[in-house]
Amino acid sequence: MVVAAQTAHFDTPLTLKSGAVLDSYDLVYETYGTLNADASNAILVCHALSGNHHVAGVYEASDKKPGWWDNMVGAGKPIDTDRFFVIGLNNLGGCHGSTGPKSINPATGHAYGAAFPLVTVEDWVASQARLADKLGIRQFAAIMGGSLGGMQVLHWSIAYPERVRHCLVIASAPKLTAQNIAFNDVARQAILTDPDFHGGDYYQHDTYPRRGLRLARMLGHITYLSDDVMGSKFGRILRQGGFNYGYDVDFEIESYLRYQGDKFADSFDANTYLLMTKALDYFDPTHTAPEAGLSAALAPAQAAFLVISFTTDWRFAPERSREIVKALLDNGQQVSYAEIVSKHGHDAFLMPDAHYHALVRAYMERVSG
Known about the structure:
The chain has 369 residues and is of the alpha/beta class. The chain is 34% helix and 16% strand. The strands form four sheets. It has an eight-stranded mixed sheet, sandwiched between helices. Strands 1-7 form a two-stranded parallel ribbon. Strands 3-4 form a two-stranded antiparallel ribbon.
């Protein structure tokens, strides 16, 4: 499937949860499949921390690298583009074409940098709803996402309950634990304390906080994998067959993490990483009424839910998904739940697991029916 990115421009100001206002902004997105006559077959895919609009397919003039969820979305795949019209977008604050810190601030003629406001899950969902309006979609057949994407799905269900019929919340949580917030803060500190960061305005200094972003990604990547995967793939294998008695790479796992850090630093923006992790930290549907609990927060939802977790995901553990399920059941809302046996940790939601994919495919039969 050959695809192309598109850009939607918005001139209507968007007031963010922080109180800041974006007078205008762009959202980059891709679509797959065909929107039917009554616009009732649309699926929105919400991306996670390092995701973007390129969900599936390949670009015509490129290295043919497929989208990040290409095993899930496409003709004949669990999210079948022969039946559904699928939308992927790069959220506000992103670094793949949508307006974000490295975009030009029309007020100054320079990159926004540190002047770009913090954005939240609530802000993303508001901008996604505007994109749906522009595309003529009043109600989604389904909205789906993994991890941070799943949090966006949850907010859709309570902010625009009449605009979504089904919600697929995968490897996610209703809010971060203190441990997860701690991981995010350590990652941010790696970036913020990099001498090349310049308070977020490194674009104007012709520098880049590569070391900080590299370390942040290495830390994050450790939390996305399970101990089983790291053990079976790397164990204590030495790269050169013996110890170097120094601080360079000795073990294969060290080499792998440095490679992942370097690759990420080459393709992502440090300011965007800061924004995305803070959005993760802030999301909490119970924030305004914690005493009422999650059931009360999810009470406005009208959609049917599919909630999926993975056994070895310790970053977004299955018990966090079960919190969502319990809250929905407490309200008498319609929810299906599956806990998939997987060795891949948090990254399992991106993997082509046969059982997982069969489950999503079966649920999508219900969506289309």
